[in-house]
Amino acid sequence: MTEPLYSDFNGPNAKSNSQALLCGLYEGEAADPYLVSFLDHCRRPEGLEDQPLEVDLEDHVSFWRKMGEHKGSEPHGLHNGHFKAGVASNLLACCDTIFRSIPFATGFVPAQWCHLLNFAIEKKPGKIRVDLMRTIQMMNSELQANNKRVGKSAMAYAEQHNLIPKAQHGSRKRHQAIDLALTKRLTWDLLHLQRRPAGWISNNAKSCFDRIVHWVAIISLMRFGIQWRTLRSMFDTLMKSKHRVRTGFGDSDRVFTPPTLIPFQGCGQGNGAGPPIWVAISSILLGMMISKGFGFDFLMSISW
């Protein structure tokens, strides 16, 4: 968020600078050694290209048939149930498919997408103190469908090209929390047997989805093969959106927007692409740690 980085990746040369960073050709200045390391690890391996992202009729119909009708959405647009019913008509499904594909292909942001509804839910049942609750952002149904499409495509590309470190267990297929817990237990058993000193830190990245810097998320997803114009549609929507608040008394009539020219950051709790975005960013962070020698490898009988 500091200069000149913020202007380099949000100003008129943002696209060219982002593509240069992916190729390792960015010539911007960075004094902080950790920032220098981060920019170095944003580079995408040679030979990999962007994957054009579009929605075809089969994808659209399959998605909405599986989507639960009860899930809420921002009320300025159509409800999930409208789209779920629409796939029963080939004509309506074709029209909805085209409307979803245009933002992917052009970076266009439909006006009715630019509304976000904020409301707090309990993180733990019965805990209704404001500081113990989590603010969720309800988004337009079409926007959410596209967000999930972006996240799914990014993860498939990253898995195919081995862009996710082995230490990254979250939000991945064939990876479960119980597997990570078992790895932790076996690691400590081995350390005890060998009488080796070690330490373990359990760190929860508080409100991480709400603190993600947009240009960092864009670079990270471009590294996972998503095209610039597709990402501009997603993040320009977040930047331009007007926010309202839902409480037990109903939805607010007044809206709020950023107090300065700098838009709110974060991808929003409840964003369908949120977990893949965090995987993309944390993959770079894990790569930084590995390059500095943090972490360890060992061989056990169970490894075979």
Describe, in plain words, how this protein is organized in 3D.
This protein is an alpha+beta fold and 304 residues long. It contains 11 helices and 4 strands, in the order ααααααββααααββα. It has helices at residues 5-10, 14-22, 33-41, 57-66, 80-86, 90-106, 141-160, 177-194, 214-223, 228-240, 274-291; strands at 115-122, 133-138, 242-247, 250-251. It has a 4-stranded mixed β-sheet, with no helix packed on it. Strand 3 and strand 4 form a beta hairpin. Helix 9 runs antiparallel to helix 10. The longest helix is centred in the middle third of the chain and has 20 residues, at 141-160. The radius of gyration is 21 Å and the shape is globular. The termini are far apart. The model has no long low-confidence stretch (mean pLDDT 90). This is Reverse transcriptase domain-containing protein. It comes from Cylindrotheca closterium.
SSE blueprint and pairings:
Layout: H1 5-10, H2 14-22, H3 33-41, H4 57-66, H5 80-86, H6 90-106, E1 115-122, E2 133-138, H7 141-160, H8 177-194, H9 214-223, H10 228-240, E3 242-247, E4 250-251, H11 274-291
Parallel strand pairs: 1-3
Antiparallel strand pairs: 1-2, 3-4
Helix pairs in contact: 2-9, 3-11, 6-10, 7-11, 9-10, 9-11
Protein name: Reverse transcriptase domain-containing protein
Organism: Cylindrotheca closterium
